[in-house]
Amino acid sequence: MFSIGNLFMVLELFISYLSGFDAYVLESIALTEFDFANAELLTKDELYNPNALSLEEVNKHRSDIRGPVASKKRFRRNGISKPAKLWPDGKIPYSISPHYTNLERALLAKAVKQYHDKTCLRFVPRSAFEGDYLFIGKVDGYVVKFFHK
């Protein structure tokens, strides 16, 4: 179902596309210590939703990935071979939509912590001066959008 919050996010995206101005800077935020503390308190039922789509079903539609990375030709590649294409120092600036619930923020924090524990990548809150960043938001479910300026 399409809510008013989703409508505003689509409108923000459209305005930022037309104007070249990043509307998400005005309303995007980062995960907090509270979110990471809540992530540690998640129950098994909260972590494993029996109604969630299987990985095969998600990959069939690929509606959670948008932009050029979603094309099948590019999606087949298994990594980045050019150092210039890597995130500097393995730090990925990000911001998230304010439309997530506390539970959803805790789940995102849990996922970020897993990346921090198991990889050399670090998600860092985006500053207003960073042009390349990851935006995690809700439009028609979950969407991750990479912005490059």
UniProtKB/TrEMBL annotation:
Query: Domain Peptidase M12A, which positions?
Result: 78-149
Keyword match Signal = yes
The protein's matches in InterPro entries, at most eight in alphabetical order, are given as: MetalloPept_cat_dom_sf, Peptidase_M12A
* Record-given protein name: Astacin domain-containing protein
Q: Which residues form the signal peptide?
A: 1-23
Q: Which UniProt keywords apply?
A: Signal
Which GO terms fall under molecular function for this chain's record?
Answer: metalloendopeptidase activity
Q: Which GO terms describe its biological process?
A: proteolysis
Q: Which organism is it from?
A: Onchocerca flexuosa
